[in-house]
C-alpha cells in the first residue's frame, strides 16, 4: 500500500508549523492562567501603594501640627512661657507657623473672648473678638476637662472662604485653663497633597468625612468648599448642624457618587486586603474599581481614604500583552517558522522566570531568588520590576520579623533598625520605675489561674500605654511586677520628671479603672542612678534589660511602701531632679544589702 507523496513544503508548513501553532496555543493558555493571578496582584499592589501613600501624606501634614500643639501646651503648662505675655506668645506662634508650612493659621482664644492669631497669607498679628461670648463660654466649658490636644470638628472661615481642620489644645497655667490654642489646616491643602499620591492618570484619590461628605478630592484644590450660606448652619464648638463640606450626593464627580452607592459589587478578582474594602461597578461601559480604608485618628468622625480606578483604561495588563504576542506569533508563523520559534522562546523565557519565581515565593524560599532581568517589552519589564520590589519587601519583612523575635520591647525598634538588629551595651544615668500589685498572691488564690492571666494582661496593657506615653521603656515583666527605664535606650533629659509623672498617672488610672471587674492597687518605687543596658540571653533569643545597683534599689524602695503605708516612694537621687512638683521627706531607713541609709521622699499633699 502506497501513500500519496507530499511536497516537503507542505510537510514543513502543516507539520512543523502546526506544532508551532499548537505550542503557541499551549503557551497562551498557560500564560493566561498565570496572568490572571498576576493581574489580581497588580491591582492589589496598585491600590495598596496608593492608599498607603495617601495615609503617609495625610500624616505628613497633620502629625507635625499635632506635635507643635503638644509642644506649645507643654511650654505654657511648665511656665516657660507666660500666656499673658502677648509679645512672647506672638513670637512662639510665628515659630509654629514657620516650622509647619502646611499650617494656614495659628492663634489663641482667651477667656475674655479676645482671639490673638496670625494667618499665613497676611502674616499680621491680629487681636480681636472672633466669636460670641456664649460660644466662647461653651468652648472653655468643653475644653476645661480636656487633658491634651484634640482634633476639633470642621469649621468654615469666611475670610479665607475655606473649610478648616483644626487641632485644639487646652492651655493650663497654674492649674487653670487660661486659653485654647487653635492650629488650622485648610481642606484645599489636603486635597493638593493627596493629588500627588496618584501615579496613574486613571486613578483618582479622595477622602470622605464619614459616609456623606467630601473632605478632599482633586477637584477641591482651590476655591470654595461649600456655599457661604451652608457654613452658617454649623456649630463649630460642639460639631452640630450642617458639616461645612460638599455632600457626596451633590458632588460634581458622578463616578464617585455611583461607586459609593449600594449598587456596586465585591471585587473578587482582586487579591483581598485586611483593612481595605474593594468594590466593582461598570460606568459608561468601562469597569471601575473603588477601594476604601477607614482612618480614625483625626476627630470623632472617621475619615475614609480611597481611590477609584478606570480598570479598562489603566495600564495594559499582562493578559492583553500575551494576546498581542499570540497574534504576532501567528503572523510570524506564516512568514517564517524559524522566526516564530525565536520569538516564542524569547517571549516564554520571562514568563517562565516569573512562574519559577512565584513558586519559590509561594514556598517561602527567599534567599536563592535572584532579581528578574529587565525586558525590552514595557509590560514584561514592569512586571519584572514589580516582582523584584515585592521580593525586596518580603525580605525586609522577614528581617523585621526576625528582629522583633529577638528583641521584645517594641519601643527600641528604631534603634535596632539603625544598628542592623544589634544593640551595644551602654552605661548611663537612668531613672528606674519598679511597680508591683498590692495583694497579688491573695488575689491569685481568690480568682484562680486562668482569670488572673486575663487580669494581668489587661493591667499590663494599661500600665505600658502610660509608661510609653511618658517616654518609658518596659524591659521586664516579673510576675505581677513591671520594670521600666527612662533615659535608656531613648534619651530623655527630663527622665526623672517623666518617670514621676508616669507613676502618678498609673495611680490615677488604677483609682478609676477595673480589670475584668477587679480593682487593683500598686506600689511604685523610683530611683535614679547609673545602669548598664544591653541585650542578654541565648544566641538567637535575646532580651533587652538593665542591670546595676540603681535597679536593685528601685525594687527595694518599692517594697518599702509597705512599711511607710504609701503608694509612691522616691529616692533622694530622683528627688534632686524633680522641680515641677513639691516633694516631702519622710526620713531615712536602712535597706537590705546597703551600708548607708536611704533618704526617701513622697509627693507633698
Topology:
Elements: H1 8-78, H2 86-99, E1 105-109, E2 114-119, E3 126-129, H3 133-143, E4 150-151, E5 155-157, E6 162-173, E7 176-186, H4 187-195, E8 203-209, E9 213-216, H5 228-231, E10 234-235, E11 240-241, H6 254-259, E12 265-266, E13 277-283, E14 286-295, E15 303-310, H7 318-335, H8 337-363, H9 378-406, H10 413-418, E16 426-437, H11 440-447, H12 449-469, E17 473-478, E18 481-486, H13 495-512, E19 522-538, E20 541-547, H14 549-564, E21 568-571, H15 572-575, E22 583-589, E23 598-603
Care to give the gist of this entry?
With 605 residues, the protein is of the alpha+beta class. Helices cover 43% and strands 25% of the residues. Strands 16, 17, 18, 19, 20, 21, 22 and 23 form an 8-stranded mixed beta sheet that branches. Strands 1, 2, 3, 4, 5, 6 and 7 form a 7-stranded antiparallel beta sheet that branches. A 6-stranded antiparallel beta sheet has the order 9-8-15-14-13-12.
How does this structure look, described?
This protein is 43% helix and 25% strand. It is of the alpha+beta class. Among the domains are: 317-403; 410-603, Alpha-Beta Plaits. The model is unreliable at 5-13, 227-236, 315-319 and 404-408 (pLDDT under 50).
Identify the notable features of this structure and list them briefly:
605 residues, alpha+beta, Alpha-Beta Plaits, 43% helix
